[in-house]
């Protein structure tokens, strides 16, 4: 099987009714991409609506962001992201949900994406996410009827971090609370610290600062 990883990015471009733009957070795509791409993995992109997803955190002073953005092949791939119906889960050894606030609006209730992720996992693959990306994990159920995160050590963008960016009352739910409700053993560090948890092929990172480390944790798990 070709070494392939599926990156999930949001199609949602507004923070609630604030009028502020959002989308996938560029560094949360580029930093894991760099680690996995250099290790020889091919990466595909899927978004709830397919096509060109909105981008946030657009900082080309970050050399890794710049490298990703100027890579013609991958810029073309992300700008023509697949629709969930076009994805065959059997082709991927891992699925990774990138963050960006948009994910809070269109990841959790997307049953097609949840189905893809559960199949990747049941096939022995890895499910990973960073920052707001774990919104995609809250409703994934396995064949045994249990939630994927139930009983596993998980982290994600914390209530404290959401409060600091003043979006506690804007996001449709608080990610930390929702994951705990699903049975996750939620772990966290202080705000904006790199924190990654790996538990039974589920890898989660707390915030943008954790993005590269999530990529490294995925690679380590793939190499085992």
UniProtKB/TrEMBL annotation:
> Which keywords accompany this UniProt record?
Glutamine amidotransferase, Lyase, Stress response, Transferase
User: InterPro entries, alphabetically?
Assistant: Class_I_gatase-like, DJ-1/PfpI, Prot/Nucl_acid_deglycase
Similarity section: Belongs to the peptidase C56 family. HSP31-like subfamily.
Keyword RNA-binding on entry:
no
* Start and end residues of each DJ-1/PfpI domain: 28-220
- Protein name per the record: Type 1 glutamine amidotransferase domain-containing protein
Q: Could you provide one GO biological process annotation from this protein's UniProt record?
A: methylglyoxal catabolic process to D-lactate via S-lactoyl-glutathione
Membrane-spanning regions, if any? none
Does the entry feature the keyword DNA damage, yes or no? no
GO MF term list: glyoxalase III activity; transferase activity
Q: Which Gene3D superfamilies does this chain map to?
A: 3.40.50.880
One cellular component term (GO) for this entry is: cytoplasm
Pfam families listed in its UniProt record: DJ-1_PfpI
